[in-house]
Structures are given as C-alpha cells and as structure tokens.
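Tutorial sheet, problem 5. The two components below are modelled jointly, 1190 residues in total.
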Amino acid sequence: MPQYKAPLRDINFVLKNVLNANEHFASLAGREEVSEDLLDAILSEGAKFSENVLSPLNQVGDQEGCVWSEGGVKTPTGFKEAYQQFAEGGWPSMTADARFGGQGLPNSLGLVVTEMVSSACWAWGMYTGLSQSAARLLENYASEDLQNEYLPKMTDGTWGGTMCLTEPHCGSDLGILRTKAEANADGSYNVTGTKIFISGGEHDMMENIIHLVLARIDGAPAGTKGISLFLVPKFLPDADNNIGERNGVSCGSIEHKMGIKASATCVMNFDGAKGFLVGEENRGLQAMFHMMNSARLGTALQGLSAGEASFQGALEYARERLQMRSLSGPKNPEGPADPLIVHPDVRRMLLTQKALAEGSRAFIYWVAQLVDTFYFSGDEQARKDAEELSELLTPIAKAFVTETGLESANYGMQVFGGHGYISEWGMEQIVRDLRISTLYEGTTGIQALDLLGRKVMGTGGKQLMVFTKIIHKFCEENASNPELEPFISKLAELNKEWGEVTMKLGEKAMQNPDEVGAASVDYLMYSGYISLAYMWARMAAAAADGAADDEFLKAKLQTAKFYYDRLLPRTESHKLSMLNGADSLMEMPEEAFAF
Amino acid sequence: MPQYKAPLRDINFVLKNVLNANEHFASLAGREEVSEDLLDAILSEGAKFSENVLSPLNQVGDQEGCVWSEGGVKTPTGFKEAYQQFAEGGWPSMTADARFGGQGLPNSLGLVVTEMVSSACWAWGMYTGLSQSAARLLENYASEDLQNEYLPKMTDGTWGGTMCLTEPHCGSDLGILRTKAEANADGSYNVTGTKIFISGGEHDMMENIIHLVLARIDGAPAGTKGISLFLVPKFLPDADNNIGERNGVSCGSIEHKMGIKASATCVMNFDGAKGFLVGEENRGLQAMFHMMNSARLGTALQGLSAGEASFQGALEYARERLQMRSLSGPKNPEGPADPLIVHPDVRRMLLTQKALAEGSRAFIYWVAQLVDTFYFSGDEQARKDAEELSELLTPIAKAFVTETGLESANYGMQVFGGHGYISEWGMEQIVRDLRISTLYEGTTGIQALDLLGRKVMGTGGKQLMVFTKIIHKFCEENASNPELEPFISKLAELNKEWGEVTMKLGEKAMQNPDEVGAASVDYLMYSGYISLAYMWARMAAAAADGAADDEFLKAKLQTAKFYYDRLLPRTESHKLSMLNGADSLMEMPEEAFAF
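Model answer (structure tokens):
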C-alpha cells in the first residue's frame, strides 16, 4: 500500500504563486483573517493527520469493510478512533459558521484539507465530508430553530449528516421520487419511503446522524416541482439538545460493491419518521442543489486525490523496480537492469498522472475560490461573475477530473505490471475506490448535459463567454513572454475554437435537440482539456520567472510542456467526433442493437 | 449478473460472410474437413455449454474465489463438475493433433468456442485455455517420447498445463530469470526456483498438471540466450502413463487480486523438481514464444469477450430501466419515464460497446485464420505472408482489444449508473476480471514496443506494408460502390497516412532511440483504430448487398457509420501526440518527478 505523503510544495505553489490565496481570503467578508502562519499551520497539521492517522487505515478499511447487523453498522478497525482524533482536533468546525461555534474559515481552504484526507483514505473522508456538506446546507436553508437545535453538535462533530435522494426506481430522475411526507399538527411531518445508496446512512462513528431527505408532501405537484426537503434525525433531540428518542428511520442493509468498502452504502427505511421541513415547501431541490454542488466539487476532488495517491505509489515503484535496459544505453550499468523510470513509456504514464493531478489541483482550488467569492465577497459584480463561472466549471470539474483521474489510477496499476493487479500493493484498490466517482453525484453523462444543455446552450453561450474572455485576457497579457509563447499561442487558438465549436453545436441543436445529448460528453471532455490547458498556462506563468534556479519550478514548465505536447491534442478527436453529429447514434432502431 | 447469450448471428456473419471460413478451412492441409454442418453443430453446442453451464458459475466464482491449503487449491463450487462435462464433451481435444487422439480442427475454429466460454466465465476458461496452449506447444517442440507420454492425457483433458515464466524480480525482463536446471545422468534435470503469477499452477479440476518452465541450465550464457524450456509434471507418470510419484513442485500460496478470483494465481516452488528438456538447450524462449503468441491472441479475446458480456448486460438494462424523458419528446408516454436507450449519450456508450465488440471479433478471427494459414497451408507464399501479417497484428490485437475492451466494460457499468458499482448486478466484476488483460502476457507497453520497435522499425516497415497493401487493394476494389464510399475514402486516406507517420517516426528514431518508446503506445492505438476501420469496411462490404431487406445487415452498416463517425477520429489525437516526440518525456530528471 503506498504510504501517502501530502504534496505540500505543490499545494503551496498553487495557493500562493498561482491563485494568490492571501489576496483571495482578504476579499471575503468575515473570512478574511487567514494569516500566512495560520494557513501554514493548517496545511502542516492536515498533512500530519492524513499521513499518520488516515493513510494506515486505507487498506484495513478495504479488507474489513463495513459490517451490518440489526443493531447498526460497524465501521472498520480504527475508523471511529481516527474520527475522535479528527473531532478533537477541531477539523469538523473549520469552515462552519461562527454562530454555531465554527471557525469560519473559507471553504476553499477546507477543500485543501479534504484533498489530503481523501488521498489518504477516501472512504473515511466520506463520513466527514457529507456531514460537513449537510451542515453547510442547514446553515443556508434551515429555520433558526432548527439551526440552533442541530448545528452546534454538527459543528463540533458530535453529530453527522447524510443526503437522501436516490430511490430504487429513480437515480438521475428525481422528478419521479415517491417518498412521502404527511403533515402533523405540530408542524412536523411523518416521512415514509425507501432511499438507497445513502453513504454513511448508518455507522458507529458519530452519536447521531441527521438525514436530509427529499420527499413529496401530500398533494404536492408531480415532477421536480413537488419535492420538499426534510431534516430527519436518527435520534430526536431532547429538550437539552441531547439525543433522545429513536426516530422511525433504520438501515435495512448495506450494499456489496466494487470499492469504498469502508464507506457504508445504506438502504434507509423511513417508516413514518419524524421530519422537519427545511426551507420552503416544494423547493427542496433548490436547497439540495446547494449540497449537490458542493458534493460535486468534492467528487472532483476524489479524482484528483486518487490520481495523486496512485502517482505517488507508481513513482516510488518506477524508481525502485529494475526491469529491462534503456533503449539509449544502460542507465544503471552496475545493476542487473535499469529502473522502470528510464523507459519512455513509463515516463509517459507517470507524467500523465503528474500533469493531471497538478492541473486538476489548480483547477479545483480555483473553482473553490470562485464559490467562496460567490458566498462571501462584498463586491456584487465579483459575486455575480463568480456564480456564473463556478456554475459553468463545476460539471466540468466533476466529470473531467474523475474521468481523467480514473485514467491516471489505471496508469498507476499499469506501471506496476502484473503486481498492479495484486491487492497487497494497494494500486488496484485505488482504481476500485475511484470507479464510483463517475457515477455518483450525477454521472458523467448527467454532468455533460448540465454543461452543454443548461449552462452553455441554456444561457445562449453567455456563461461560457465569461470564461473564454478570462482566457483571452490572460493570453493577451502573457503574449510577449517568450518562455510562455508555445503555451499561449496554442491556448489562444483553442479558446477561439471553443467558441466556434459551440456555435456549430448550437446551430445543430436548433434543428434537433438530440444533438445536445449526442455531443455532450465529447464536449465536456474537450472543455476539460482546455480548462486544464488554461491552468497549466497559469502555472507556467507563475513558474517562469524563478525556473532557472529552482528545480521545482523548472519541473512545472516541463510538465506544462508535456501536457501541451501529449495530452492536449486529445481535444482534436473530441472535436471531430462531436461535430460528426447525432445521426449515427439515433438512426438504429432499438431492436437492432442485438440479434 | 447478466445471463450470457452467444451472439451466434454475428459469429456466423463474420465467419461466413466476411471471412469465408469454408474456403479458409479448405485451404488448410489436414484441417480441411470442416463441413457447414459440423461448424453449425460446434457453434450451437459451444453456445449451449457456455450459456447453460458456465454463465451461472461466473458470479459464484467471484464470490467464493479459490481457497489454498497445504493440500492444494480448491476451485469454486461447480468448477470441477463443469470441467468434467467439458472433457466428456470432447472439447479439450478439438484442435489437438490426431496423432494423440485430437480432432484436428483449425485453431481459428477453436477460438470461436473459446470466445463463448470466455464471455460466460473467463476465470474458468483460463484453466482449459492454458492447458490447450501447453499441449499445442508440446505438439510442436517436445520429443516424440515426451509427446507420447504426456499428450494423450492432455488431449483428452485428463491432464492440464501451465506456463511458468515470471519470477519475483522479473516479469517483462525474462533475461534476468534465475530458476536453475541441473542435468541428471538419465537425461532429466532437477529444476529449482520460484515462479510467481502462475495461472492454474495448482487446482482440483484435473488429475495432473504439466508445467512448462523457463530455467537456466548450469553454465548457460547470461541473458535471454541462456534460457531453456522444461516440462515439469506435478505427478511423474508411471510406466503405464498413469500418475505416479509426486514431483518436487508445490504451490506456496495464491494471490489476492482485483478480479479473476476463481482463477488460482499461484506462487510455485520448484525444489529440485524433475524436469525434461523441451526443444533445444538455450532455445527455450523461442518455444515459449509459440505459447505466448497464442496466449496473446487468447488475451485479446478476453477484451472482446468481456466487452461482449458487458454490452449484453448494459443493453438489457438500457431497454428496461425508465429514467428521464427524451429531449426530442416522450418515447414511452404511458410510463413514468422513457427507457435509457432513448438518450443519445446512452446510445453512444452502447454503440461504442457494440462497434468495439463486433469489430474486434472480426479482427481476432481474421488473425486466427492467418495463424492457421501459417501452420497448415500448403502454399508457401501464403504461409510466409500469413506469418508476417500475424506477427504484425498479434501485438495490436492483444493491446488494442484489451484496452478498448476495458473502455467498453467501463461503459457497461456507466450505463447502469450507481447500480453499476453494486456487485449484485455483475457489471463491476466484468471490469475487475478484465483489468488484468492489459497487464499479463506482456503489458500494453511491451506489446507497443514489440509492434513499433521490432515488427515495424525492425523490418524497415516491410511487415507493415504487407498490411497496408492489403488495405490499399481492398479500397481499390470497392472504390466504385457508392454505399461504401464514406468508408473507403476515409480508410484509404488513413492507410496512406499510416505509412507517412511511420516514416516520420523512423526518421526521429534514427536520431534518438527513445523516440520509439515515446511513440509506441500512441502508435499501437492508432494502428488498432485503423485495423478495426479495415474490418468495419470489410463488414460493411459484406453487408451492403442485402441490407435493404435485412435488419441485421442494416445494423451492420449503421454500426460501421458509427465507428467511422465517432470512434475513428481518435487516430487524430494519437497521431498528434506521438509526432510531438520524446522530448517532453525525457527531459525531466528523475528527482524532479515529485518534491
């Protein structure tokens, strides 16, 4: 199992040299007090916790998995103890509102800690990540009474939370969900129905679990316009806000699945469970989208963090394993063979992993800053721009980073040869754990429809232009730097092409709405490669000055060149494929798919 | 778990309409007696056995896995019984030499049965597939005495076989292997060493296991020129060729791995085990390459068969699962939602699976015919051409079909959404089982070096030209058919480009040998897409005539169009990436990969 080591040099570079985190923090109302010292302390303590406490749990978690019984779900050895340490360290309160005891730090900073936690042990991090997302939702949408009742204990980590959307017959299609809520005289509701795929629906790590449940109030309109959101606790709080009576919600079973075996994926039965409306009636989806957007960015992080972990394992192996001689002459003449890392194709795989992880890190951190700005900036125009841009970029980050993260994790196995397939090495677990990321929180196909259908076509290209203008401006500003020339000229060319391709698709879609779905995934991947090209150009610009004397900065420029030379050409195939249109997808009658 | 259904209509189409199997069989000396009736009987019996006996074992095999004890390895419930049925049905003898009781049928026909077996339960098929490969090697390389002693029982399936290459410190790099062989006075050898990753090294399905072991005779030259091949049986035969004394070979443990859990992957300890030289001293690799080539084509088949199984599962689900409305209006207005298959992106995934499975089937069957021709044709020139072409195409088939098969299997999961991740559905098992295929029998990187370094550059492009000439001729012959025009013009263009790209890489490689490794995997994938484009054009040509009245043939043309529109553009990115050369791979010093 690879022992995780937090890539602090790169994290610092992205935060400080590329994204000017200090300036960013200073622009946020009520979140501006992040000193350089505090930032460094958070990074170093987060790294220590992830490396020393969580990383050793990752393989144990996979081997033991969760165990269901009538009495509840037992998490693997060490999970509960690690959580106690986490809660004692104050981590659950990091980005929580000060009103309920939170530290009020920016989400973009919380995300950096989550990256480290996730690389070390994704399955463990799901319990805490979803709990914090649930708390953020309640901070924004719940009544003051509910907030005062639930948020203090969710903030200090005593209680956790879940999101309950999926039902057996509906995943992507929430409009057809059936869970019912009947109003009681006291203003509460009785919630009845079955939810599946509920991560952390039941476990032994926290004292109470606060479920956020989508359900239909009796008599509500059909479809997505009749869905409300309810808070349904496992234990109802007593008058002192300690856990009291057990509520009518229980875990019927947990799923056996490909990976993230240490994360309990629960079937949750709500049997007239007492629930409390969060936000307005029939506006539950809007509130849930809040949580879903943060969960989407969190899932993007899974692609990055798994890719990083896989890269670390593969790099170590490639340096140590001796196999074959370099085609350009022995590099380790004293040994029986050369280390794997001398071979060009092994380098291609490692550099693909490196370029994707570092590019995705910069990309996700940037999107997280935009979300910060939307929530906390005092500048209205900045808020509005940040909202549009983060809405455009969230589906790209979610789908592109998980899809390419999966490629990266597979390369990590591939570097190990046959050993990559053996569980002991831990490389195959990374692939299995990560494989869920293109499925949950909206599949890649759903993200792609959201991007092309809603965000791009739905705004007449306006949201896209917010981004292409930023790229255009960046290219103009850096056009005269000879060190950056190869990046800037290619980026400018692709940025222009992005607009043209979008126009062409728009014209096709006017004739035939299926053209949107037919092009969508190619369009999303195309957009992802350009987005990362922008991040790599920004990183190259930040590295160019000092690169002569600093190996780290020099490696940044080399990795940028690798990205532009060897990965960015993929835009070309996606472009050709999507412009060939929907006909060859739609012509075949359903019966003719197989005989 | 998807219930496998053999795609007999497509298998028949490829054999009869595309590859003229009857003519082909008639051209093989001693293998010509395959009547249409016999062919049909074999296909239908093979389908029945695979569907009814093997398919139900697939999930059981994954859940139970193999169990090791001092006494041996227990295979999952039903594996042994299924093998008894297989042996009683005469299947192990199908392609074996008549001298030892075999039916002497062509290997290309055996491969069709293997495809069905593999789709139904790959892990089970590994025991029989490797056993048959071992028998074929002995038929070609062992002394008459050894053949008479071992082949009758290997032919009737009483005994099985393995190939023992890998050692803990060497996988791809066989030149550094350490297993030793000391000559005894009676002409036998004592073999000592440890082999790992030995599939079927120990199990309870057959009475005896005949290991084919690479080892170094005392005093042999270093490197690959000092490796010999030995037959080392688990039980030494007695004077009547029944099993006698236990030999000094034992299974020390089995590996825990990502998938193919029902296939025992063994650590084999040879402790002065009695072995018998197969073929000449120090020429062991040449003989083993025989087995490895057939194992490579067999592994290509794994990509196809898993892709087919995944396609079948995904298609069924896409027809039944109701989720969301079609963007172009409801297609199932009476129901709560439309079936998944109406959505363009779901169709894109299904058609990708279909186009890859059917294209790969035609491709692998064709390569298998070439191998037949090389072994059994009476026409010397035909044999020589077939040898060159099959050598060129084997690494393409192995790496391209497994890599794209993995993409296909992942799409199969993706169509299921979150359910794809749940073990019960069986879709994730297909991905886990298949994942080994790009690793064993030579990784994708090794295949790519074999293709570009040895087969293409190593023959000055001669082997490639055998193929490009065939494609050129095909394009000329079909240029005037308007129905085929879109395929032919694109294929001809790419065929020309293939030669040009190869020339450019050759020039670069003269300056820097690392250019070969740097381009190799992109080159292999590029070659694979063109190879499949050729197969799809041949299928379109075979289908064009009758397509007006036959839905199956019409679907062939539609799938060909899909392949050309949506998958073939991938050549473009691979071309651009590889032509950007080795610099961005080789410049970074090893220390700078991470800080």
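Marking note: The mean pLDDT of chain B is 96. Full credit if you identified this.
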